Amino acid sequence: MRRAWPAYRTLWIFLLLGWTVSAADRALTGPVVTWMIENKVGFLSATENRYALGGLIGGLFFAGYMLTQFPGGYLGDKYGHRTIITISLIWAGIATMLSGFITGLVAFIAIRVLTGLGEGAFYSNDRSLIAAETPQEKRSLGMGVVITGLALGITIATVFAPNMIELGGSVFSDGEDAWRMPFLILGAATLVVGIATAAYFRRQERGLPYARATLHLLAYSAVGLAAVMGVYFVGDAAGLSDLWIAILEVGLALGLVAFVFSRRQTEMGAVLQNRDLVLINLAFIAVLWNLWFFSFWSVSIVADAAGSSFGRSAMIAAFNAGAGILGFPTGGWLSDVAVRRGIGRKPLVVGFTAAQCVLTVIFGFVVAAGAANVWLMAGLLFSASTFFNAMQPIAHAMLADIAAPEHHGAAFGMNNLIGEIGAVLSPAVSGALRDATGGWSAAVFVDAALIGGAVILFLLVREATSVGDRPAGRFRRADSQTTTAASSTA
Length: 490
Prior knowledge:
- This protein has one domain (7-471): MFS general substrate transporter like domains (Growth Hormone, Chain: A, Up-down Bundle), CATH 1.20.1250.20.
- 79% of the residues lie in helices and 1% in strands.
- The protein is built from 18 helices and 2 strands.
- The chain has helices spanning 7-27, 29-39, 50-67, 69-79, 81-99, 105-119, 122-133, 139-171, 180-204, 210-237, 242-263, 265-272, 275-306, 310-340, 346-369, 374-402, 408-437, 441-460, and strands at 466-467, 470-471.
- Helix 2 (29-39) packs parallel to helix 8 and helix 13 packs antiparallel against helix 14.
- The longest helix is centred in the N-terminal third of the chain and has 33 residues, at 139-171.
- It is globular, with a radius of gyration of 21 Å.
- The relative contact order is 0.15.
């Protein structure tokens, strides 16, 4: 007798598709910016520090993205995670398509920030929905399978950006507008996935409060857009460098954390005062730094180090993104096996992160030597990224084990909000280092040092034990009067 296809696997497929298109939308900016720099076109043609400005554009997207991490999780807990996931995908599709119509630097930055604000609501609700709907013994596997879409999306954006730009050159009468085509194509794909996801969720739960949730998210986003662009205008008027503007945007995010804590101490005290969650969140600054350093600049790194063409560099750089297709589900599966055998998730997180750090250091020396062999670079990128991607679903499952289920949305939202500090700074800092040094090796070594710091932070996390079929790790109340459901192990 054939076993019925479990409903949670269908959920995994739709969420994987959501990750794929949204990741492609956000990763697309890096290859497009690299093409604009190489061809001296668009709003990057007149600036002196082109890499720093290109990195700032990417960083400001993530400034918007991080500002809706906690609101997105909070609204998911309030209106339902399915509701916010659907809104996020449709929002991202429309905003990405609009990116292809924009003319002018400031307008382009604004629409990318707006895109980030919409996409920022996806992560915390996706992780929360998987944790709620997947059997606990398959939780890490589910998170790994679904987030494989991140690797697929980045790979699609990296590999096919040259082809989409080439198509744009034949469609638009002005060849300088060829960069618009990737945004139009991938934005339309995201919109289709968003509509299909809405139809799927409608079969599960009718009457989702889309209107109220959209208005609530729009209110948060309006404030976020005004704040991010206000910081940009003030920094630009004051003559600050692109790097300092990115740093100010991080200060804005930290101010948001402080504001949230002051307004919602009862709810958020459990998240922000939990030692182990804080350690994981800080480690994710390095995780997100590494992810978007290589996702944004890998094509340029390969082109500079190996002297290869834009198209070939994109193909080699795709080994970094493509490794997630293997790493994400494998890491999730190994994590669940380790828990069943009493080993726990922590040894895998620490070991995989340490292996990635060593391989990144070796990659840095290869880049520094110059005239690098493209296949050696491809092998190192693939190996380091496989370990890097494998550790992420394991760390996500650790967070879900530690967090109380009723606070999963807020916990995952805060995790990504703090982690996105790395995503905001990484493209801008790395681009500034490229402008200052004339090469990418310094930026690679900075990335490796941050990953080394993440290894230490993960070592200090106390993994939750299990009691029966439920995680023992529970939030401590802010007043520390309530005991946890079970103790954590050192």
